[in-house]
Amino acid sequence: MSTEPTLDDSIDSAATTVGSVWPIHSFVTANPLAGFEDQPFEAAVADATDLLGGRGYPSAQTFRTALADGRIDEAILRSELADRGYDADPETLLGRVAEAEHDDSTDTEHESDTDRVDAVLTKWLPAFLDEGRAHWAMPNREDGFYNAFRALAPHDSEVPDSGIVADLPASPTAAIEAVVDDYPTAQWEAIFTEQLAALPGWTGFIKQRVADDSEWQSEYPITLAGYLAVRLSLLDGFGVDLTPTDAERADPDAADEIAAGFLHAWEATYREELVETVAAESEAMADSEATVDGDEAADDSGTADRPDAQLTFCIDTRSEVIRRHIEAAGNYETHGYAGFFGVPIEYNGYDSDVSVEACPPILDPQHRITERPADDETQATHDRVGGIREAAHEIIETLQANAASAYGFVESSGSGYALALAARTLVPGRVHDLLDAVDDAEPDSHEFCEPMVHHQHTYAGDLPVGLTTDEKVEYAATAFELMGIDEFARVVAFVGHASETENNPHEASLDCGACAGNPGGPNARVLASICNDDTVQKKLRERGHEIPDDTVFVAGEHNTTTDEIDLYDSGVPESHADDLDQLRADLTTAREAAAAERADAMGAEATDAIGETERRAADWAETRPEWGLAGNAAFVIGPRDLTDDVNLDGRAFLHSYDHTTDSEGDALEAILTGPMVVTQWINTQYYFSTVDSGVFGSGSKITHNPVGNIGVYQGNGGDLLAGLPLQSVAAGPDDPYHQPLRLSTVIHAPVDRVEAILADHDELTTLLDNEWLSLTVVDPTREHTAFHYDGELSWTGTSEREPTAEDAEPAVEPAATVPADD
Length: 822
Fold this sequence. Notes:
Helix content is 46%, strand content 12%. By secondary structure, the chain is of the alpha/beta class. A 7-stranded mixed β-sheet has the order 13-12-18-19-20-21-22, with helices on both faces. The model is unreliable at 297-303 and 800-822 (pLDDT under 50). It has 3 domains: 4-24 and 110-237, no CATH class; 309-685, no CATH class; 750-818, no CATH class.
């Protein structure tokens, strides 16, 4: 009787404990403990660290610094620790945490047979999984990983010549069965779990590659079963006992309980201040609206102060900084929206040989969008300059890679290369200026291309090319409704974002997470094109979106490294030239202020902040061109008026939302099931990369080696590193810049509306009930009372104020914990 279903089921179940890893050229921030999210956070950390190693909480020194800096309220801390049964002085308790950290250190110098297996696999895996970087490709890849290994292993002296690996069966299932046949069936899943977790970076990458079913996977297939078959056979050849460790995990020890108490207190301190601010601003906003309504009633004018322009940015925490400074520079209104602008597309740029999925990883692209040249003359200039550059690059690459010509190439061009390297090292700012001048001479594709947005009645693979009119209307209406936009300025800009950096394998981690680690400019262009369509505008007006005849939609892209914003104005009528000139001037002013703030955060001189940010962008030796999303701690969902007078220090994701225009809660439901989940992924990636860079991050960039265009490892081999580098989260080896806190979500809406959404989505209540993030609702219909989610659809009101007769019928009582209705 075949055991294949049992094997497959056991492998699939075991694989859930390994987090997915995306290729580094499309870096996706994700919770490395995603497979444990069905458990409470503290239990998950205990189980995951037992299985994967590493530390799941900030260090004692990190907590000590936060306490000394006042980021942990001591009264909250003592109460939290007392609830856990610890009444000793906080410093004494931190001493216990520090002792546990010291006791956990182990000697890893002795090489075991399991280490030898890892060494063999980490030689074969990058050779097989290479995505076009290797000049000499591994043979037999088209046959799949298991078959390629089976054919070539006899030529590898490091592969043992005993056991099953010496004579591999024809199928991976047969090989797995042959190895585990001597073990009880009940142990198989535990065996698979431990072996998949032994190299979680590589197995996580295989898992995601199978799920994506990309062109590389189609051409050179690999499966978890094939990987396990090779690994188990190697272990068998080396005579390694596969008996799994005790499946019963120990309860969290005292040190972890104390650390969890400190973490809760730190998060509560941050959250309480944020919630108090939002609640106060909510009340002030209501008072202001009442005053405005009274004034309008008195003079019957009904006029409003129309902003000079409206700009919509990604909810990315870096947008909070630039938005603040833009609003200070003039009469501007800014909004926050997921950076793919609600249009899930596969985008093929004019200069690109491949398409990219420009949407969050929790979504699948629904349309194929291609850039189409519209300006022949500018296109010709671009092609001429670009062609020369591409030909020169190909010649140099061929000379460098060819064994017969490499030495002669170095001899003849070494001095020129030396000068170029010296310039990049010593005067990177000048290099940036030079490259800028070259780029200015070569038109960007957005200057002569337009995205092919209109439906073409053709398909690229399974995706329709372009969008139908009804689809365009739906995407535009959804954007306006989610953001609560009901009045429009003369200029409305959708601004995506991208980064600028040199010699940085992790550059995609600095681009738009909502666009799967790609720039967000293309998505902004698509939505702007949609909204400028006359037919779309007519149908939008029929749905109640009154777009004035003089409103023009433009796209742009925010360079988060230098804070420069490039507006794409092709097709904008001459009537709006002055508007755009003024907007560009004010964006420059905002850039200067934002760059100064960023330079200060990086500990750099702010006297020439723009010059410093440009230097970092061009410096090939710069390990930290920008901080990325380091510092993220909150997600605020509500009108911009709640936060426009507050400096959130680039730590909050900001999604625009107006509960008064969303009576059914559909817009809020889309935000909670989409952007909130993605921000939780980002937050946990930063959290775990900070608390243990070596296990959950990727360690120091200084010793990174890129491999196969898919990732990095440390030194000359080892596991594929899945997380963020140390330099992305820390100012020094023992000086974390990112404050490792779980995400605090704050929503400005009726609490019963939020509860109804949660009741319909088990995946959200699982995350919240298990404390992977927190949720607080500031309810403007209940005198701006804040309600904190306590789990199992129950809430605690943070105000002693009772609801008035004018308040909506309460679904939960303030100042009490009330379970949801049966």
